[in-house]
Amino acid sequence: MAAAANAPITMKETLMLASLGINPQFINFTHVTMESDKYICVRETSPQNSVVIIDMSMPNQPLRRPITADSALMNPNTRILALKAQLPGTTQDHLQIFNIELKSKVKSHQMPEQVVFWKWISNTKVALVTLSSVYHWSIEGDAEPVKVFERTANLANNQIINYRCDPTEKWLVLIGIAPGPAERPQLVKGNMQLFSVDQQRSQSLEAHAASFATFKVPGNDKDSILISFATKSFNSGQVTSKLHVIELGAQPGKTSFSKKQADLFFPPDFADDFPVSMQISNKYGLIYVITKQGLLFVYDLETATAVYRNRISADPIFLTTDAQSIGGFYAINRRGQVLLATVNEATIVPFVSGQLNNLELAVNLAKRGNLPGAENLIVQRFQELFSQAKYKEAAELAAESPQGLLRNPETVAKFQSVPVQGVQTPPLLLYFGTLLTRGKLNTFESLELSRMVVNSNKKNLLENWLAEDKLECSEELGDLVKVGYTPDYLFLLQTILRTDPQGAVNFALMMSQMEGGCPIDYNTITDLFLQRNLIREATAFLLDVLKPNLPEHGFLQTKVLEINLVTFPNVADAILANGMFTHYDRPRIAQLCEKAGLYLRALQDPEIHFKYIESAAKTGQIKEVERVTRESNFYDAEKTKNFLMEAKLPDARPLINVCDRFGFVPDLTHYLYTNNMLRYIEGYVQKVNPGNAPLVVGQLLDDECPEDFIKGLILSVRSLLPVEPLVEECEKRNRLRLLTQFLEHLVSEGSQDVHVHNALAVKAFMTADLPHELIELLEKIVLQNSAFSGNFNLQNLLILTAIKADTSRVMDYVNRLDNFDGPAVGEVAVEAQLYEEAYAIFKKFNLNIQAVNVLLDNIKNIDRAVEFAFRVEEDAVWSQVAMAQLRDGLVSDAIESFIRADDTDHFLEVIKAAQDANVYHDLVKYLLMVRQKKKEPKVDSELVYAYAKIDCLGEIEEFILMPNVANLPNEVCFACVDAEEFRLAQICGLNIIIQVDDLEEVSEYYQNRGCFNELISLMESGLGLERAHMGIFTELGVLYARYRPEKLMEHIKLFSTRLNIPKLIRACDEQQHWKELTYLYVQYDEFDNAATTVMNHSPEAWDHMLFKDTIVKVANVELYYKAVHFYLKEHPDLINDTLNVLALRVDHTRVVDIMRKAGHLRLVKPYMISVQSNNVPAVNEALNEIYIEEEDYDRLHESIELHDNFDMIGLAQKIEKHELLEMRRVAASIYKKAGRWKQSIALSKKDNHYKDCMETCSQSGDRELSEDLLGYFIEQGKKECFAACLFVCYDVIRPDVALELAWMNNMIDFAFPYLLQFVREYTGKVDELMKDKLEALKVVKEKEKEQKDTVSQQNMYAQLLPLALPAPPMPGMGGGSFSGGMSGGGYAPPPPMGGGGMGMPPMPPFGMPSMGSY
């Protein structure tokens, strides 16, 4: 376990596919895809075809859809699914892209050849690999797949396992595997095709896995594209495993990346294992090589240095994907484990520096990944570079130091302290320049650089840096630059736009909210965005600032709609649909809508429609006016009617269209009549809408139109006219006589309309005021056995006349007559309030519903209605009775009636009434009946609620365990809660809380009713559910915070990875659980808040060890000093321990100032001692003060000797008159250290520290001081001191002076030891000189002897030879003698060496080459 904890790579299981119901047979390369760290997609083929989508943010809630496909890929970033299926009987594949959220198809395509491998290469592009080629297919627009390149021969008959692109999509790599060679087939062979898009060329290589990376080579301002690939090959009986890293497309004239390679060491048990995947972490610059059998190799990208190797899975790994945000990767093995590999940030650097002993790589890793563990190495390296005056390299190291280790005031002070020589760039500026090229300055750096710039009067530089977000804004920085400074907002906005468009939007919105208004008008800001084609950013800005919908912003409203209608019509459509703008140029936008294909939008503007009608009318386009008024539904009818009336068009059809469609018939009639357009009145009544003729007639009567015209109009329509409203209109105006001819005409045509006959009879008799006479006449005709007794019309007329004139006779007529219009006459009787007669009529004609309604609504006798319902036994009748009983509060009776009626339509009203009346037994019977006919969740939930109210708990349990439509919804649970049946409520609740959206509602329901313990029990049970999600763990934590705080901390610690920490943080903050809140902040990496909480609520939250671990991780450096104040106030005994962990982060000077102001400087003495090695003036002076106060002269002397960065003279002056002798001695030592020799000697003389005097003189090297001291000792009669001074200052005092003083003052005896030493020293020096001289002479003699021996030997060779020898033959000259020999007995040259002879080989004549061989 300890080894795993210290390993540089951490492995953990994040998910088990089998636990989600995935069958193990589908956990393989062909069924599982993982295109990114967001989604896993599993394709199942049994028991039914389906696709399972696992969202890694909530893996326990997989989405399973019934889909049949050969392959399924989730988009790397969005909920878009790509599906591939082979067309039956062909080799063609059908490809489809679906948006799961919108439930819509995005795109589809039919490939003419089979796709053997495919993969998302970006958020909008899919790569398709066929047997012969590779295609790229964009899901945007209507583009079809585009062929990119053809496959090379080395990939024939290979299984394609991967395809990758570099970030620019200029370099592509395709990877396949094939069986190994015949001599070793079990070692799978890997093949790779590398393709350059720019060069349109491919290169075939052996490789099993490959990946692209970008790398910035020092000295090159552009990123280099690297490819790394791993191979394991078998050649000539040897297995070779290599990792290669090379640069692609090296930039001419630029520093390039040197090719790297390294061995992959496979253990013997993995002889046939091979790489299946490679991932590169750009965050840490590491290469991960993963093998089939579960080995992981980790290499450094820059150097190809091996970092780590381990087995991460006992089961074969078939799939990996990059976890880019955390610098690791996911791997899936055949057992279904989803493993996550991450860098152990706390241990990888110590591992590399310790176990691998690679200090350079450790430092580079720490800088690259901002990792801890190399602090000492980096500080040491920085000090070395600084001491060597390599300020540029030191600045770069400080800028790149991990976790801002060297980004502190001490570093700035160090660069500040370097004197500037000549025209050299100040090292401080060099440091700041390096920081600016790498990112943003921190608060202190921003302030120091700004101070330099302001002092140099170059505030324009500040504008640039602020615009580029290079400076950390602070109150101090604002105070520094605000005096007389007005920012150039336009310049700032332009600058931000170049690098950060979204930041520019935020900056523009910030300006729009400034007091006094935006310094740049909105139109200018919009144009700046549009100049850079930043349509979306311009739209975002305008939508925000135009929210008030002001008339003066009409131009900008038009502008935002224009630019989006041209570029993004769907955005413009959404804006228009939202209705947030009303002041834009409607005609202009309508035209653009039409061009953009938004025809409905173009036509939906009422103003545009009216303008169109207006324009057409004014230009005489009457047909177009008529068409639009007839077809359009979007113009303002009132406005259009008024316009057309004012326009007085010769053709009234447009006005007729408007008035007929929108109910302006009286206005239309009045207009047409007053404008003498009678033929249009006739046309409207006869051809357009005869049904409105009564309204026309009524208006004509009001306008006093001649009766002949009205009569003619009515007769022209005849039977098409509705009689009743026409009679009503005439009766209102007492003009019923006008209809005589019309009514008679209808009767002659056989009309049976009661209103026709009624009107005629009434007209005849009523005109003569003879209703009773009419009745008498009709009785004789109808009641007596005459030929007209059974006449339908006469019976109608008799009863209707009686209704109007003599109601006492109506019931008798009803009982005696059988052939009259029962429904119509019954309604007339109701209108005449003859309810019993009406009831008799309806009952007689078996119109039971109308009959019971009379009893209920008019007679208002429910008992009679019930009796009637029992008699007729019709469902509809019982329904009417039930509704009446319900209205009268007879709920139980109503329920019984509803059951008799088998009526389930009014269950909502019944439920409410039953609950109000508390008749739940009856309600249960009704709901059981309803549930047999309707499948409504409300019915199920209310049934359970009713069961609960009547204590039918067994029925509830039986019910909730059986399938029903409600699927145990929230209401079921709530009903059980209300009935305090919490066991049943929990059974329901467990099925509810697994739904994230319902969890909060359940929790609130329980809490509102005070059921806190029961709710907690429900949530605790929910933790064990298979589908338990983060919401359950979080909600339980919130409940603990509110009601069970004693269990909160344990819960947080157990389930910290499954909590929605921000939500729980809010709960703990509200409930003031400070200790738990601190822990949550730490878990959420909110170290600043954690530290602040501890200090603000220390009685509950403070724990010394936890606080120490937290405070070192905060981002706000001010918290360090707040911590100092905190410990000073509350835990002074532990302040040194806290300061020790902050030693590398705090400003020691500031800490000393805090303690000095508080008057507790001595309290942090141990801390100051521990950091005194930094030689900070404030620390040195503080410690020295303490030592003086404590009269600890030994420590004071030690401090002064080791740490010299303080005011030496000031300290010496302070203690030179100290009452302690040793303190004065320290003062003398300080003077000596400061080079003030005389003052040091004088002080030592005063205290009779003669030894110190002597040592000071010796150290000064000043002859005059030393000889004066001799004189002083003579004056004081200090003979022994005189003798000692001669020895101590031996190298300084002149011998003659010493002897003279001794001789003159009778101290020869005391000078004699010095004299002996002097004589001995000089004698030794002379002896050494003589020895050196003799040795030099000896060397010279030996050299002379060697020369003589050489000459003698040469003479010996000459003496041994004969006096003359024949000369060797010259080439081409035969054997003649050499005539060039020396005469007179001179030595001839020695013969050439041969056989075993001696001597040197012959030399050619001077300046000439040899003439040939002998």
What is this structure, in a nutshell?
With 1414 residues, the protein is an alpha+beta fold. The chain has 67 helices and 28 strands. The protein has a 4-stranded antiparallel beta sheet, with no helix packed on it. Strands 2-3-4-5 form a 4-stranded antiparallel beta sheet, with no helix packed on it. It has a 4-stranded antiparallel beta sheet with strand order 6-7-8-9, with no helix packed on it.
Overview of this structure, please?
The protein is α+β, with helices and mostly antiparallel strands and 1414 residues long. The chain is 52% helix and 13% strand. The strands form seven sheets. The protein has a four-stranded antiparallel sheet with strand order 1-28-27-26, with no helix packed on it. Helix 34 (835-844) runs antiparallel to helix 35 and helix 35 runs parallel beside helix 37.
Overall SS class = alpha+beta
Strand content: 5-15%
Strand segment tally: 28
The main sheet comes to: 4 strands, antiparallel
From the spread of the alpha carbons, the general shape counts as: elongated
